[in-house]
Amino acid sequence: MEAAVGYVSVVDVDNLKATELRLGLPGTAEDHHNHLSSQKAMSSSVPSTPRGMKRAAAEDDDVVDADEDDEAAPPVAKAQVVGWPPVRSYRKSCFQAAAASKSKAVSNKDEASKNTTAPSPAAAAANGSLVKVSMDGAPYLRKIDLKMYKGYRELREALEVMFVCFSGADSAGANPSEFAITYQDKDGDLMLVGDVPFDMFTCTCKKLRIMKRSEATGLGSHPGK
Amino acid sequence: MRDAEEGSESPPSQMSGDGPGGSGGESESDRWMPDLRGGNGGGGGGGRWAPPDQVLENVLESVLEFLTAARDRNAASLVCRSWYRAEAQTRRELFIGNCYAVSPRRAVERFGGVRDVVLKGKPRFADFSLVPYGWGAYVSPWVAALGPAYPRLERICLKRMTVSNDDLALIAKSFPLFKELSLVCCEGFSTHGLAAIAEWCRYLRVLDLIEDYIDEEDELVDWISKFPESNTSLESLVFDCVSVPFNFEALEALVARSPALRRLRVNHHVPVEQLRSLMAKAPQLTHLGTGAFRSEPGPGGVLSVSELATSFAASRLLCLSGFRDVNPEYLPAIHPVCVNLTSLNFSFASLTAEELIPVIRNCARLRTFWVLDTVGDEGLRAVAETCSDLRELRVFPLNATEDSEGSVSDVGLQAISEGCHKLELILYFCQRMTNAAVIAMSKNCPDLVTFRLCIMGRHRPDRITGEPMDDGFGAIVMNCKKLTRLSVSGLLTDKAFAYIGKYGKLIKTLSVAFAGNTDMSLQFVFEGCTRLQKLEVRDSPFSDKGLLSGLSYFYNMRFLWMNSCKLTMRGCRDVAQQMPDLVVEVMKDHPDDEGEMETVDKLYLYRSLAGPRNDAPPFVNIL
């Protein structure tokens, strides 16, 4: 326990801010208290359009952030949904890679020639396969290298091992099925891990977040479950 | 669910992609059904039919060879038993629009002389992450059946199928005369599989890899080196989606010994310096995918724009694409070929209007143009002013999010409609639209066959009047009499669907998202769109009642997809029970969900002669 506290004090507060999921453009400033208040607001807002239970937590999270985060550049009216607008991931990932390399070229002229020749999902993975992993309720984050894993099962097992010490805090036992693994992709969307081929996932995953299953499915807003 | 494979079955025309040619809703009793129990060419069967006239059948086969369109062949096969047999022996292209609609064994038993197979797998919404990974569409059983049955097979085209390296190796080894492989939006294979194709298909003419997801394995294979060392028959090599690095020297050598090569599309690892070298080795190219289109200086230094322009001037190019990470300074290099270009794809190049206009002003013969919305309404206006022969326009969003700025609008659409009267296909992503612009397009572009408008903000009304977009889409279906494919968006009420049902008589494919008020919308569509084959719906307030209003039409359709609507298990079970030749798949939203939920998030139903598939993953529930 004390080691955990010590770790938190060493870790820059900005680190935690940076891992918070929100809808603003990357690089825009954000308030620290969003992280804490958004957790509170998780169960409050009900999705306004009739939809299934998926990604309800993503909507709540993003809607709250939109209200409270004055400094995000574009005003966010609605939460993102899966697969909308209907642009193929293939196309989206090419732009993200190209846009990233272009902005690097603009900001750092010395390295322009190095960075902009091969903007590809492969290159992006080579540069950024280390992603942060957060878990709701855990005091600190971890970092993993997605390239180390051959598939979802290995990844899941590794995460279970890493975070087993935290899962006992609130719930009765460390039951893995109580948790859902989600990730933030290049568009800033909150996605459920497991839907796309693993290699595609490693290219588009920016950070991982382990959430409680009850929050992931928006319990309380859907009487059916 | 009754196994539809044995015993009497639906008309054989359902085995291929097209539905019955006539009006929908024909009842079973009106339709003559061949008795297939005797098998192809067998003399058995009932005594009701006269023995086949062999001479007549030979003549018939010669005549039928001239029929190429699947619809014509389907019709011919229904005339009588001997025509059915003759057609089955002479059909060269087998088109299967849904790989689960018929079993490989059955297809192979019916058709004897197939040279060309087209197979489509996953529903289109799989492209937008709406179908969980592992759903199916495996090509393996097909390759296993096609191999022994059609040793002379020349061409395979797969779309949205799961293809493994083993499958590719088996294809390569099963068909000694294999000539063309086309993989579109497929996944599951890597450079290992490509190496097998290159190595074993000695007569390969076409290898087209289009928007596939290539597994990036740790050990890359130098597949380009595996092509035959002698002159090849290659006519088309498209691999821009193979995003891993490759052996450039091997490609140069391959291009140099492929005198028939007309189409070459490389990936983004190719800078202009290397591109120039390729162009020099293949001056006969007509289609070029230009790779990154920026400089990566080698020992020769940075390539100048004028040197690159010289390469283009010496070429015979008609179609350009690529520009994956374009340095706009190099764009003027393509000016020499612009006047001849019929197709230009800038959809991966984030260009401004200023960068586009000098290029597009020269492209008077352009017929196909793909572009990013970064060029704005102003860029589109320039297109409209120059490209009066344009048939196809696709405008993609740079930022594919609901709340992005969006640089094109109704203004651009209106301009295009005023300049490009011959437009047949349009795909347009935007944030702001008006009914007036859509109506204008409906009147100015009467030849439209495909109209796909995506207003990215959900439920967004006309930006000027605040009205729903009903009238705009209504005008499209009313005025564009050749329309077969429609995608709608924006704020839409039941009225829009009333229009679609009333006027959209030729519509085969309809895509609906976040639209409609009540189940009447679905009913209008089912009852009105008599040629409807593919209906995909998401996030719209349609319930079991709407679903059931389609019961008498489902056998005339290839499939129905609905996700995030208001369907329940009860309604879906109703459908499954009443329609034995329909496969009704219900998918769990969360792959790990346990137990049964009353609400249905994803429904995919399709007619099938094969019955429920045996390769469904745990999250698919077949009712």
From TrEMBL, chain A:
Enumerate the InterPro entries for this protein: AUX/IAA_dom, AUX_IAA, PB1-like
User: Where are the coiled-coil regions?
Assistant: none
Q: What cellular component terms from Gene Ontology apply here?
A: nucleus
The segment annotated Disordered runs over 27-77, 105-124
UniProt keyword Nucleus present? yes
Alphabetized, the UniProt keywords read: Auxin signaling pathway, Nucleus, Repressor, Transcription, Transcription regulation
* Presence of keyword Transit peptide: no
Bias (Acidic residues) ranges: 59-72
- Which stretches make up the PB1 domain? 128-213
Q: Where in the cell is it found?
A: Nucleus
Pfam families in alphabetical order: AUX_IAA
Q: Where is the composition biased (Polar residues)?
A: 36-48
Q: Where is the composition biased (Low complexity)?
A: 114-124
Please list the GO biological process terms of this entry. auxin-activated signaling pathway; regulation of DNA-templated transcription
Chief subcellular site?
nucleus
Subunit note: Homodimers and heterodimers.
What family is reported? Belongs to the Aux/IAA family.
Function, in words: Aux/IAA proteins are short-lived transcriptional factors that function as repressors of early auxin response genes at low auxin concentrations.
Name of the protein: Auxin-responsive protein
TrEMBL record, chain B:
Where found? Nucleus
What GO cellular component is one of the record's annotations? nucleus
Q: Where is this region: Disordered?
A: 1-52
Q: What PANTHER family would the database entry show? A: F-BOX/TPR REPEAT PROTEIN POF3 (PTHR16134), TRANSPORT INHIBITOR RESPONSE 1-LIKE PROTEIN (PTHR16134:SF36)
Sorted alphabetically, which keywords does the UniProt record give?
Answer: Auxin signaling pathway, Nucleus, Ubl conjugation pathway
Annotated Pfam families: F-box_5, Transp_inhibit
Q: How does it assemble?
A: Part of a SCF (SKP1-cullin-F-box) protein ligase complex. May interact with auxin and auxin-responsive proteins.
The chain positions of domain COI1 F-box read 53-92
**Which CDD domains does this chain map to?**
F-box_AtTIR1-like
Choose any GO biological process term that the UniProt entry carries and state it. Answer: SCF-dependent proteasomal ubiquitin-dependent protein catabolic process
| Start-end of Gly residues biased regions | 38-48
Per the record, the pathway is:
Protein modification; protein ubiquitination
Q: Where is the Transport inhibitor response domain?
A: 114-158
Per the record, the domain of life is Eukaryota
SMART domains named among the record's database cross-references? LRR_CC (SM00367)
* Protein's name according to its UniProt entry: F-box domain-containing protein
